[in-house]
Amino acid sequence: MRNGTQIKILAVDDEQDNADLLRAILSKEGYAVTTLTDPTLVSDELKVNDYHLVVLDMMMPRLSGIEVLTHIRSYDTDLAVIVLTAYPNVDTAVASLRASAADYVKKPIDPKAFVDTVRETLAKKGISRDPEADLHRLIGRFIREGRTKQTLTLKQLARRTGLSVSLLSQIERAESSASISSLYKIASALKVKMSDLFGDA
Question: Tell me, what DSSP letter sits at residue 164?
């Protein structure tokens, strides 16, 4: 999503400290975050405001995370939901998946892993803060994995393509935008079709 449109996330946790932590982690990544500590307010909030993702605590008084998720699914089958729990077990994991939770994360959360999960969950819905940057990462990963499978060093790939080691390294790390000409040379060197570099993009 670009042009100033922020991705909106609703974080629901009955403990204010946890809700504040979720807000801090996600806001730092540029997401617009709203928090609720009362699970009974979730349905009304979602009917009034449009969110891209809900982060939902499993164990809450009055309504459990599964009950809230079941309510959400009764009127929105597409909204991405990540379930958090400090007490993971098979029953809650199965119940979450049956209610179409996108992912199931153990608390206390690891901020980096949690942010990665949020990004992956949104990406599965085709939602991205920067589609161009995502495409660069996809291309870079494909090139790096293809080169590694063929046991080619950057220097060897540079020799095959006529591109500099520095440029190839920047492309692999998604720090530089590759020209069509460069991508053609890389695809030829890796013996793949140019379209393969773009994966499912």
Answer: -
Q: How far is residue 6 CA from its own chain's centroid?
A: 15
Task: State the Cα torsion 148-150-153-157 to the nearest 10°.
Answer: -120
155 vs 189: CA distance, rounded Å: 12
**Which residue type is seen at 131?**
P
Pairing of strands 8-12, 53-57: parallel
φ, ψ for residue 58 (rounded to 5)? -75, -45
Query: Going from the N-terminus, what domains does the chain have, and what CATH number goes with each?
Result: 8-124 (3.40.50.2300), 131-198 (1.10.260.40)
Question: Could you read off the pLDDT of 124-159 as tens digits, one per residue?
Answer: 887 876 667 778 888 998 999 999 999 999 999 999
**Are 25 and 111 within 8 A, CB to CB?**
yes
